Structures are given as structure tokens and as C-alpha cells.
Backbone:
């Protein structure tokens, strides 16, 4: 069971949250101007990191706000949580397995 | 290779079974191969076997970082069926099911394929309509599929609770009678033994650390046991597809999620078919040893730890106890997770990659085990001819650019 620190509500059990996948993906500014390859990359291609991963969560059964989490995908250790729009904290990304 | 038969069994009985030869060799890797398959699970071993048997390419190595069949091949719930909605999926899985039907004879290895039927329950009006649609689609594609009324379900599965007012009313079901279960380890061992007999080198305890790619074409695989020159590399690493793609410098639309399963204490036979419910995330069968084999849903978040999260376990067992009240006092012996690589459209990627000479077999989500023979068969064709077979042409990586997705998510709910 993950205990996820919501930046607004504090640590809560994982069943209160829904997952939003990889964080910090920017929608192309002018979708009409890009080719299918770039659009497919934006819509479908995702990092699937084995190690420290920056991801989005929403506190669906709480404050209902989206935020970002840095989590290790092998140990499931949560290293940080921070508000959407903020830059990720400095982390030791070399803690890969 | 000693042929397994009643005669060889009797002869070895005279020696107290002490002189059985090893089922496959443990060779050191040669400096070069015509093709290297990365991943010694069912898919990789089947691919090597069909490369040798169907295409005459026997100078092949299967590289496995752990031991063969130690990944998802040994971690699934062993269900085999082919009742998929879309034409492309039905063709591929049905081809696979036909190979399953002759697999023990083909490999001279008992994979214990048992066509005990697979039942998919409908709990509400929407489920009923979806099941009706799927049965019709299956029949149009030549896949056997029938509707069962609650009464017929009760006849086949007497232990199911169909009393009105239950938490999960059962309004009907579909059944694929040719579906069933197989011994998952035996599939890996059978393919390994048969591929080895045709000259394939199976190299275990040999992690892949990188690929040598020159001018967009792969020329060698870097491994824990040295560099292996080869012009063709087939990836078949399931949950680690993205990690391998990363080493080769391209991306996949894949998310790796832990999918969990549980096994109970063994009891006397109570369930002689497979019961699945996509709507409430539970599927169950009984192994020949008597254990209940229970499959749960996948975690919603990326994970490479081979265990599932507790809320998923709870949800599944809650549903199983509602459907089968007599299992409430059963004790679970083991619980584990396998890392399933899931595509956005819940269909696999089976074909070429942006790197010349490199191929990918991944993204099977929760459907990898049942597809083992068919996927290996089509993948071997793809590697041998540098172009996909018509069975897997639609499952290209390119479909995410063209938008020609094969959306099995809605079609198959959780269990696909």
C-alpha cells in the first residue's frame, strides 16, 4: 500500500488517489503545424522508467487536485511530491536499479 | 534428444530414473549468430523454435538474464482463449489456439493443455449486450463462442452464488469451450527442449547490457558474457520492453504495470472450468493440484517490483467471495505480481522497430501467455523475412502514427 503525500492534504492511502501517468509532458503549441510522428509521440509515447519516475496523481477522494510525485518504480519509495506547475526537486536520479 | 514416450518411461524406470539426459544444453555463447532472441520466456523460446523449424534458421541464440520461464511465463494464471472482439486480434489468437491444440504432440512435451472452457460473466444489461456482440463477432471470425443462461451457468459451475439479490447478479455469460488452461512452465520447457534439439543455443544468466547500432542497423548485442555479433535481434522481454528499447535508442507506447495473481491451499476438485468476470476484476480456475488460481487486475501505476498492491488483492478477493461464498474460508498460499507491458489500445506490438534488423514483441498486457505459440510463430516469420506475416501486420509500431489502433480495451474489459 502506497502512502502518498498530497501537497495539500498530507499523507493519505493510495486508494484515495487516481494515477495520471508521466508528468511534465507539454502539449504541442500548434498541433496543426506538426506532423503525425510528433503528434503520435505526444499522445502515445511515454517514458516507462525503471528507477526514479516523475508522475502525476490526483487526490480524487480528497481535495481533487492534481500534483506530481517522484517515485522509484522498483522499490515504490516516494521521494518527493510537489504541486503541478512547479519544477521537480533536485533528486539523485542515479538511484536506478 | 531422447524422445519422451511410454517406452522411454519404462526403460528409465528400470534405472530408477537416474539416467534421463538433460532436456537442453547450457552452452557458452558463440561469437556470432544469424539471429539473437532477447528473452527466454515462452515467447522468446517459441520464436527460436519456429525460426529453426519453419524457416531453417538454426544458428540462433536465446539470451536470458535470469532463468528460462522465470518471468511472466511462470507468473500468469495459465488461461488460454481466443474470443477477442476485433478481426486482427481474433485471427492472431485463434491461430495461437490452434497451435495450442497440437502443441504437446508437436513438442513431444506434455504442456497439459486442458480445454475445460472459459466462461465470461455478465453482471448487468450492458455486460449482456457486450457479450452478445462479442459472441456474434467471434462466430463471424470462426471462433467458437456460445451464450449461457444463468441456469446453464449453474449447471456448469454449481458452486456459484446465483441467488437473487446478490451483490453481483449474474445475468448470463459467454463460453468458449475450446479455451482452457495449460501448464505454464511446461510451455517454456517444451519449447526450450524442442528448440535446443534443432540447434538453438539457450544462454541463461546472461543479461543484455546494450546493442551495437551502426548507421541505423544493429550489428551486435552486448551481454554479460561478452559481445555477440548478429544481424537480427528479436526482443521478447515483456515487462522490460521499454528498458530494452531505451538501450537501442527508440521509444515505445508501453507502460509496465504489476498484474497480480494468487494461489490458495489445495482442495478437492470443485471447479472444472475457468470463470472470468471483467466487470469485477476477478478470474478463477482450479489447478490439477487442487489449488484455486486467482487472477486480479493490474495496478494503475507503473511498477517493476514483482508484487501487486494490496487494494487490488482486496478488491479481487472480495469479488471472488461474493460469487463463490464457499471460498470465504479458503487460505491463500502465495501472492505475486508479473510485470505486464501495456499499450494504450491494449493490443501488442509485434513487428519491426526504427532500428534495422531489430524487432519487437511486447505490449501484450495481460494476454501474453495465451498468445505464446501464435506470437512466436508470427514473430519468427517477421524476423526471418524482415517483414510481418499477415497475422501480425496490423500490430505494427506504426499504428500509433497512422491511428489504426486495435482497441481491445473496451472489448475485453480487464481480462484480455
Residues:
Amino acid at each position: 500500500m502506497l502512502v502518498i503525500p498530497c501537497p495539500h492534504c498530507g499523507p493519505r492511502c493510495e486508494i484515495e488517489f487516481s494515477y495520471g501517468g508521466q508528468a511534465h509532458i507539454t502539449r504541442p503549441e500548434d498541433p496543426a503545424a506538426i506532423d503525425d510522428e510528433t503528434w503520435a509521440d505526444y499522445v502515445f509515447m511515454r517514458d516507462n522508467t525503471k528507477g526514479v519516475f516523475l508522475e502525476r496523481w490526483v487526490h480524487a477522494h480528497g481535495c481533487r487536485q492534481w500534483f506530481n510525485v517522484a517515485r522509484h518504480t522498483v522499490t515504490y519509495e516516494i521521494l518527493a511530491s510537489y504541486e503541478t506547475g512547479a519544477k521537480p526537486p533536485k533528486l539523485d536520479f542515479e538511484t536506478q536499479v | 534428444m531422447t524422445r519422451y514416450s511410454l517406452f522411454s518411461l519404462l526403460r528409465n524406470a528400470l534405472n530408477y530414473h537416474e539416467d534421463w539426459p538433460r532436456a537442453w544444453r547450457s552452452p557458452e555463447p558463440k561469437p556470432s549468430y544469424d539471429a539473437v532472441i532477447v528473452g527466454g520466456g515462452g515467447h522468446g523460446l517459441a520464436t527460436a523454435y519456429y525460426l529453426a523449424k519453419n524457416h531453417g534458421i538454426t544458428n540462433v541464440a536465446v539470451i536470458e538474464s535470469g532463468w528460462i520461464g522465470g518471468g511472466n511465463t511462470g507468473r500468469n494464471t495459465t488461461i488460454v482463449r481466443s474470443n477477442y472482439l476485433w478481426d486482427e486480434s481474433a485471427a492472431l489468437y485463434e491461430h495461437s489456439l490452434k497451435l495450442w491444440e497440437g502443441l504437446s504432440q508437436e513438442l513431444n512435451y506434455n504442456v497439459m493443455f486442458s480445454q475445460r472452457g472459459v466462461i465470461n460473466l455478465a453482471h448487468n444489461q450492458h455486460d449482456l449486450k457486450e457479450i452478445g456482440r462479442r459472441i456474434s463477432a467471434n462466430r463471424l471470425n470462426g471462433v467458437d463462442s456460445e451464450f449461457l443462461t444463468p441456469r446453464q451457468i449453474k449447471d456448469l459451475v454449481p458452486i456459484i452464488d446465483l441467488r437473487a439479490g446478490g451483490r453481483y447478479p449474474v445475468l448470463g455469460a459467454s463460453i468458449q469451450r475450446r479455451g482452457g488452461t495449460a501448464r505454464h512452465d511446461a510451455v517454456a520447457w517444451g519449447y526450450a527442449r524442442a528448440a535446443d534439439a534443432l540447434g538453438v543455443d539457450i544462454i541463461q544468466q546472461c543479461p543484455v547490457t546494450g546493442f551495437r547500432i551502426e548507421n541505423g542497423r544493429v550489428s551486435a548485442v552486448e551481454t554479460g558474457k561478452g559481445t555477440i555479433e548478429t544481424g537480427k535481434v528479436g526482443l521478447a522481454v515483456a515487462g522490460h520492453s521499454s528498458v530494452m528499447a531505451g538501450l537501442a535508442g527508440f521509444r515505445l507506447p508501453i507502460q509496465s504495470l504489476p498484474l497480480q495473481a494468487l494461489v490458495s491451499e489445495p482442495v478437492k476438485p470443485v471447479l472444472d472450468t475457468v470463470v472470468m468476470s471483467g466487470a469485477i476484476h476477478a478470474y478463477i480456475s482450479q489447478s490439477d493440484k487442487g489449488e484455486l488460481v486467482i487472477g486480479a487486475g493490474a495496478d494503475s501505476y507503473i511498477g517493476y517490483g514483482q508484487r501487486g498492491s494490496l487494494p487490488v488483492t482486496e478488491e479481487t478477493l472480495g469479488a471472488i467471495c461474493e460469487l463463490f461464498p464457499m471460498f470465504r474460508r479458503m487460505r491463500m498460499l502465495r501472492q505475486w505480481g508479473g510485470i505486464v507491458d501495456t499499450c494504450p489500445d491494449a493490443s501488442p506490438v509485434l513487428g519491426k522497430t526504427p532500428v534495422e534488423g531489430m524487432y519487437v514483441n511486447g505490449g501484450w498486457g495481460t494476454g501474453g501467455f495465451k498468445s505464446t505459440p501464435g506470437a512466436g510463430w508470427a514473430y519468427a516469420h517477421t524476423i526471418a523475412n524482415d517483414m510481418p506475416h499477415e497475422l501480425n501486420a496490423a500490430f505494427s509500431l506504426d499504428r500509433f502514427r497512422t491511428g489504426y489502433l486495435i482497441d481491445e480495451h473496451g472489448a475485453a474489459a480487464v481480462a484480455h
